[in-house]
Amino acid sequence: MPLLILLIRAIDGLSWLLGRLLSVALLVAALVCFANVVLRYGFGVAYVWMQDLYVWLNAAGFTLGAAFALKADAHVRVDVFYRPASARRKAWVEIAGVLFFLLPMLGVIAFWAWPAVRLSWLFGEGSQNVGGLPALYLLKTCVLGFCAGLALQGLAQAAKAALLLAGRPEHAPHLSEPRQG
Amino acid sequence: MEPQVVGEILAVLLFAVSIGTLMAGYPVAFTLGGTAVLFAAVGWLVGAFDPSFFATLAPRYFGIMQSEVLVAVPLFILMGTILERTKIAAALLTTMGQCFGPLRGGLAVSVVVVGGLLAASTGVVGATVVTMGLISLPAMLKARYDPGLAAGTICASGTLGQIIPPSTILIFVADFLQGANADAQMRKGNFAPDPVSVSDLFAGALLPGLILVVLYIAWVVAVANLRRDSAPPIRMTEDERAGLWRRILSSLIPPLFLILAVLGSILGGIATPTESASVGAVGAILLALARGELSLGRLMEAAESTLKTTTMVFVILFGASLFSLVFRTLGGELLIEETLHALPGGRFAAILAAMATMFILGFFLDTFEIIFIVVPLTAPALLMLDVDPLWLGVMIGVNLQTSFLTPPFGFALFYLRGVAPREVTTGAIYRGALPFVGLQLVALVLLWEFPPLATWLPRVLFK
């Protein structure tokens, strides 16, 4: 049991740290895009790699940030029946959701994305835009990172729900407290 | 049974079962994707699904990740979040209320105007309704407004963000319509169709959005003057009156200028939506800094909140893409096309059926889910019938907006219920929303009868 709790904390911590980093990356993306506008309209110069940069930063944000959003319970639910449900019922939804929906979906995505990502690494694929960034394979790898991060965080959420069912609700406050807006 | 028939049965079941599994309350994105995978497995076992089609998923995701146009989405959300978190939006709303307040129904008018302007900021229905519900509802109640009128005005104005540019929803709709239209035109033998850009759709939605604003204001003013006790003018204290001009200069003009500059640069064809959005986001940050309301902590809060919302939206897109892929591979898309084309009543019936489906889905699902599932599956069939893509996009926007406003399920009503004080009954909110639903229907009929309302401006501006 203590090991499980330690694992949950480790995964939570990882997702949180990644989320903080990606939030900064989002601000950087906004600034790069803005700088791009200033350079283009103010000075008549345009750098393709700058455009790639803010596009890629955003993509890294919403793929690798998915686990952070899951931890924060920011993925929308249809909550007509979920919101008024008891904590135990919510815990069951959480566990079943991870096992029957989240993990199979991520499995399919990862299994069929893997060959494409591998190929990209083998070719050392760069941006399709002339003058763009190198290492498009890093961006494509984010799809695998999306799957890995979400799977880990999903398991952590399911473990928290299981702890609640086992009489340890202190690890799953998001299930027992009324949800905020 | 033939595999094709089995596949079509599975496709229909997939759609029906998904509605059921969504009700369980697990996040929509994963429920959609997971249910689709389970059906794909069944389809594979009975020989109706070829899993090698899953290989088309990764390129689709890579495409979304490399789309420059879609970066406008997080940037607009960032702009809106900063305006909201730093109380710039709140100050805008309060000051606007004081400008119009001395008129009969003036507070309600200010809510409509600000709702239309803040549209810029979110496109996420909840945020606007909650902001206005927290600030304007107490102000209107204090001024002895009829609770129903106050609640209805706030709900309706909060949904304006769906349609008034730069709505984030329209960015996605334009993206889908562009692909669907290119396909449909190709199949009809037109190999060089006019592209459907985000700027086009923004321009198309502008007039219908303004018509809605005018209809709302006309209604509010009419009620205020016919039922004199429903929306009395407010009396300002000497202090409030004295500082009004200063507040107009500091709280009203700067955000107004920012929002209009962003919109103007897109519609003027000067900058792309993404470029304008970055100016909007950085402009909002600078504005907040100038007002001394932006600490590093608050900036990080806004960035984290933006990251969560953006991720939520894009992950739904990922899940919905998987759903559509399975649905399509099972033969569901063909089924939809055949059904829509075979409806008695032709084009009229096909559009009506698609719109009715979206309207009803609007009771259960939020905008993004509906757009991501329904538009890719129905738009190609509709566009094959020579429906104008811009007109279709605007119709979808106004239609969903109406759905979010319709009692008893409308999303906007739920959000307001969440922040409204107890003395505003749920019945009052429903009663107040109904006339606005009527106004929405007026707008839909106008759009139906006069398609140029949506297609004229883009043509003048960009063609």
Offer a few descriptive terms.
heterodimer, A: 181 residues, mainly alpha, 6 helices, 75% helix, elongated, B: 463 residues
What would you say this structure looks like, in words?
The complex is a heterodimer of chains A (181) and B (463). The two termini of chain A are 33 Å apart. Helix content of chain A is 75%, strand content 0%. Chain A contains six helices and no strands. Chain A has helices spanning 2-43, 48-64, 66-71, 87-123, 136-165, 173-176. Chain B is an all-alpha fold. In chain B, 77% of the residues lie in helices and 0% in strands. Chain B contains 20 helices and no strands. Chain B has helices spanning 3-23, 28-45, 57-65, 72-85, 88-100, 106-118, 125-142, 147-159, 168-187, 198-226, 238-267, 273-290, 296-329, 332-342, 346-361, 367-384, 389-405, 411-419, 426-449, 452-462. In chain B, helix 6 (106-118) runs antiparallel to helix 7 and helix 14 (332-342) crosses helix 16. Chains A and B meet through helix 1, helix 2, helix 3, helix 4 and helix 5 of A and helix 1, helix 2, helix 3, helix 4 and helix 12 of B.
- State the order of secondary-structure elements of chain B, H for helix, E for strand: HHHHHHHHHHHHHHHHHHHH
The major β-sheet of chain B equals: none
Structural class of chain A: mainly alpha
Please mark out the parts of chain A with pLDDT under 50 across 5 or more consecutive residues, or reply none: none
Largest sheet of chain A: none
Low-confidence stretches of chain B: none
Helix content class of chain A: over 70%
Radius of gyration of chain B, taken over Cα atoms and rounded to an integer in Å: 23 Å
